[in-house]
Design brief:
single chain, 262 residues, alpha+beta, 2 domains, five-stranded antiparallel beta sheet, four-stranded antiparallel beta sheet, elongated
């Protein structure tokens, strides 16, 4: 009677950490001895028990690896989120905005927080495919523009989707405190809206017209203490919430469409 471990022969296929099973091989026609048969069954039982132990150990390792993978996923998500909010990434801004698209026709005048903004329609071509697009956006009354850049690889993070395309919004709150030649000292806050949209291998970037909130001012060049600006009322240097809300509304008018025949 011949008896061997499952998987072939009890030799080379066994894990390196386990010795071959000590089975007894009988020749054809030779009577089987009870002691040898019991020895073989004992070896088989030991192998089964060892397999169960190995399976339990591997299951524990798999559970540990699963926990580690979940931890890595959590850390990766945290890093990806920080890429849009920390100095090491593209954006370092305390403010965010929601994009809720509003369709406005070219030339239409939209009024946000009492300020009129005409809607412009500007064409551009996607570098890789040659497809023509047009972008609609609120602009200043006299000067406006967009820029495009050919970029086959872009590592910047995205925190917005505009017309189905990934976008990066940087909503900046900047305060100027000082004096320029021939003018009085002043303090004002500036809200800058900078947006980059990726279409294929093309980056489209532009700024929505700056909103300036004048906070305070004083004096003239004849003031003997003109180099001391502490007369500025720091109490008026407040968070320009209305201007930030206006910026949030303005981005809703941005949209992109494919040009006919493109």
């Amino acid at each position: 009677m011949a008896l061997s471990a499952c998987g072939g022969g009890g030799g080379s296929d066994a894990p390196a950490s386990q010795p071959p099973l000590p089975v007894v091989t009988n020749q054809s026609g030779q009577p089987a001895r009870a002691a040898e048969v019991n020895e073989n069954f004992s070896a088989l039982t030991s192998a089964i028990d060892q397999n169960a132990t190995d399976i339990a150990a591997n299951t524990a390792k798999a559970d540990t690896n699963s926990t580690r993978n979940q931890d890595l996923d959590s850390r990766l998500s945290s890093v990806e989120g920080q890429a849009c909010t920390s100095n090491g990434g593209i954006i370092d801004s305390a403010h965010s905005a929601n994009y809720e698209p509003i369709v406005a026709k070219v030339g239409e005048l939209v009024v946000v927080e009492g300020v009129p903004y005409p809607i412009a329609k500007i064409p551009f071509v996607e570098y890789a495919s040659g497809t023509g697009y047009a972008i609609f956006l609120p602009v200043g009354t006299n000067t406006f523009s967009i820029f495009t850049k050919h970029a086959s690889v872009d590592t910047r993070c995205t925190n917005l989707t505009i017309s189905g395309f990934p976008a990066t919004l940087d909503l900046e709150e900047i305060r100027f405190i000082g004096k320029t030649n021939g003018s009085s000292a002043s303090s004002n806050s500036t809200i800058n809206v900078n947006i980059t949209i990726r279409i294929g291998e093309t980056l489209v970037f532009f700024s929505i017209p700056t909103t300036i909130v004048h906070e305070t001012g004083f004096g003239g060049s004849a003031n003997p203490a003109i180099h001391d600006l502490t007369a500025l009322d720091a109490g008026t240097m407040t968070h320009p919430g209305a201007a930030i809300a206006a910026a949030d509304q303005l981005i809703d008018y941005i949209r992109i469409e494919v040009l006919p025949g493109a």
